[in-house]
Amino acid sequence: MAANKSNLIYNPTFRAVLFQALAAAALFFFIYSIINNALVNLEQRGIATGFGFLTEQAGFGIGLSLIDYDETYSYGRTFFVGLLNTALVSVLGIFLATIIGFLIGIARLSSNWLVSRFAAVYIETFRNIPLLLQIFFWYFAVLQALPSPRNSISLGESVYLNVRGLYFSKPVFEQNAYWIGLALLTAIVLSIGYTIYAKRKQQATGKQSPILWVSISLLVILPTIGYFASGQPIHMEAPELKGFNFRGGISIIPELAALLLALSVYTASFIAEIVRAGINAVSHGQTEAALSLGLPQGKNLRLVVIPQALRIIIPPLTSQYLNLTKNSSLAMAIGYPDLVSVFAGTTLNQTGQAIEIIAMTMAVYLALSLLTSLIMNIYNRKVALVEH
């Protein structure tokens, strides 16, 4: 029996499980001690705990809200307003940074000296200036220098730019407008179906079909037909200057514009280097083989080089997406109403529920990061080289 116990102790698998269990127990005890001590201290100071404050009236306004909100709504509503505002700037930032980064990364490898030098200057300039300073530059030096609403810059019919933001017409949907939505949904389904058909046809015959132009045509023509067939059930509501500001239409506040520009431009400088490294990692023989088959430089890059480079680009690109989402919390510096500013800032100051609010805020950023990683990992597995 003693020999069996001795053998069990020296068993590598048993020891690994034992040490991990002990480490997990110590970690849970440490976390429990911190939470318990915090709750005791809060109770001694007469500070309430729990999430009951989420149903209390907030009593403060928010400059930008994607859902209905005013001072009479609860603190729980402020959480969702801040969450949606954070998601808005993160999604738009990822989209713009990806486009700019890929363009600059490809331009960095251009044989044109001027284009290549411009891309190099862009990369070395924006990635070496702190992001917070770039946010300040766009907000204070650029957008705050714009004229007042009464002296707005007209960028076209019913489009105005001033220190309060960018204002343009808003579409107002009437009763039969759902037909346009159905036509758009049909166009999307047909575009996806045609794309699948075209790719299978290419794999079987080697012949390419114009996927992009067919998809664009479907997305334009079908909703247009639905618009006229349903009696043109959309009219535009133009912004109008009333008093000291514009009313009606759609407005983009300068805080959103400054934050979005800074995040996109800054992150794009890192993405550009990732793209450049990924393209350089593809064997030059692949390019020579494609050119020898008569492929133009553009198709060579799009069909041969980029698909292979994506296997190298995707993992570090995911990290940049995560950094952009987390860096959006700097919005507090210029007053953009994101989750940190609205919920972990104003709501926390008014309620004093520090543990609950900070925990919820941390959980949101963790969830956004995990969701981004999940989507990118799925795409990474799709483009990864499969060995048989």
From TrEMBL:
Cell compartments where the protein resides: Cell inner membrane; Cell membrane
Cross-referenced InterPro entries: AA_ABC_transptr_permease_3TM, ArtM/GltK/GlnP/TcyL/YhdX-like, MetI-like, MetI-like_sf
Domain ABC transmembrane type-1: from-to ranges: 83-376
Domain of life: Bacteria
Annotated keywords: Amino-acid transport, Cell membrane, Membrane, Transmembrane, Transmembrane helix, Transport
Keyword rRNA-binding: no
Pfam families from the UniProt entry: BPD_transp_1
Keyword Cell membrane: yes
Bilayer topology annotation: Multi-pass membrane protein
Gene3D superfamilies per the UniProt record, alphabetical: MetI-like
TM regions (residue ranges): 16-35, 47-67, 79-107, 128-146, 177-198, 210-229, 249-272, 357-379
Family: Belongs to the binding-protein-dependent transport system permease family. HisMQ subfamily.
Protein known as: Amino acid ABC transporter permease
